[in-house]
């Protein structure tokens, strides 16, 4: 008889049961889930890597731009420092010449003023003798020769020992805005550095301090005169030209400058003055505001000036590219050109809310709610710019 197998004994020939279809489906589903998860993680890490690479590239470009800007700034500062001695030497030579000319002019007679040469001689005589009052009186009698004055006054002011002080004294105590503006405009080429140009003005700290005090006094007097809306345009023009001439423009006052420019936009010098004040980037918004006010002709003038600034940018880029392409950096250092280009590009405007349309006004509209301007002659003869200052 065969032996009965022990129930607890494991037989070697027993095989596990074959997997069921459900087990196969579960394993398939698990593999699919793992594959999808792996792909998702792989895509995620790839995206992270790409973002990190983009951020790294952006940081590198920014660092390079900052390095370039720092290098240009240091080069510009070094050049300014190096040119100080040369500028001072030129100024001292001019001072000696002016002193000698002033001594010679003491005994000379004024003579007849019947042509351009006579006009220049008379202006130079007053400047050499440092007679601010006589200089001013002579200028206001020559209003009909305004074009000749604009061309001759800079030459005459160049003979002064301290041209900015002469201009400041001519302003003080006078209320003829047109003459103040002419003298202030004529000072700009005189006070420019003879080596590096208008990027450095040869104005003494004492004169600049006094000019700043005058500007602050004028700003404080706005409320006393009823706000920006009630300020006369010749007064505004003289104030803004005063800031540009003495190099005392302040960024924190840009909003005030903008309101003043828009309120007196009908003046033909305002577009160029706005650029000189650093408001070139505000031009698009000012143009929209002028159109909204119905001052379309003034908007055209501002648009023309904006296009002129763009052309200047294109010209600067072309010159810089030419210098770099032909390796002319040694003969023509491009630092000042790049700095000028950066200054033009820096003034970017932020998007602002559209200005609500106002009632169309005539050409001599002042500010947003003001009525028509008084006649041109009345405005020119009653400027309160300097007379409103405290002595």
From TrEMBL:
The keyword Nucleus does not apply. One of its GO terms (biological process) is flower development. Keywords: Developmental protein, Differentiation, Flowering. InterPro entries: Frigida (IPR012474). Residues 1-22, 352-377 are annotated as: Disordered. PANTHER family: FRIGIDA-LIKE PROTEIN 3-RELATED, FRIGIDA-LIKE PROTEIN 4A-RELATED. Belongs to the Frigida family. This is FRIGIDA-like protein. The lineage of its organism: Eukaryota, Viridiplantae, Streptophyta, Embryophyta, Tracheophyta.
């Amino acid at each position: 008889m065969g032996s009965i197998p022990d129930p607890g004994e494991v037989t070697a020939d027993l095989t596990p049961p074959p997997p069921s279809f459900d087990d196969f489906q579960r394993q398939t589903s698990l593999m699919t889930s793992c594959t999808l998860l792996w792909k998702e993680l792989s895509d995620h890490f790839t995206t992270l890597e790409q973002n990190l690479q983009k951020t790294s590239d952006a940081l590198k470009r920014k660092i390079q731009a900052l390095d370039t800007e720092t290098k240009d700034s240091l080069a510009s500062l070094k050049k300014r420092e190096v040119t100080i001695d040369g500028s001072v030497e030129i100024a001292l030579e001019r001072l000696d010449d002016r002193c000698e000319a002033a001594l010679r002019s003491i005994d000379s007679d004024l003579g007849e003023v019947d042509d351009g040469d006579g006009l220049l001689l008379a202006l130079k005589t007053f400047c050499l003798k440092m007679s601010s009052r006589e200089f001013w009186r002579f200028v206001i009698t020559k209003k009909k020769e305004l074009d000749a004055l604009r061309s001759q006054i800079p030459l005459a002011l160049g003979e002064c020992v301290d041209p900015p002080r002469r201009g400041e004294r001519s302003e003080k105590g006078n209320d003829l805005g047109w003459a103040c503006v002419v003298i202030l405009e004529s000072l700009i080429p005189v006070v420019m550095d003879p080596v590096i140009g208008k990027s450095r003005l040869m104005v003494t700290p004492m004169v600049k301090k006094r000019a700043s005090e005058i500007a602050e006094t004028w700003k404080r007097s706005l409320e006393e005169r009823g706000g920006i809306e009630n300020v006369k345009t010749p007064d505004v023009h003289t104030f803004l030209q005063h800031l540009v001439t003495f190099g005392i423009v302040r960024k924190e006052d840009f909003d005030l400058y903008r309101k003043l420019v828009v309120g007196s936009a009908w003046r033909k010098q305002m577009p160029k003055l706005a650029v000189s004040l650093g408001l070139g980037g505000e031009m698009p918004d000012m143009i929209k505001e002028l159109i909204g006010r119905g001052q379309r002709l003034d908007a055209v003038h501002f648009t023309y000036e904006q296009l002129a600034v763009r052309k200047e940018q294109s010209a600067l880029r072309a010159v810089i590219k030419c210098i770099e392409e032909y390796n002319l950096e040694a003969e023509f250092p491009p630092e000042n050109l790049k700095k000028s280009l950066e200054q033009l590009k820096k003034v970017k405007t932020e998007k602002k809310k559209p200005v609500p349309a106002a009632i169309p006004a005539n050409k001599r509209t002042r500010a947003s709610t003001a009525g028509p301007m008084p006649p041109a002659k009345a405005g020119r003869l009653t400027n309160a710019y300097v007379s409103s200052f405290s002595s």
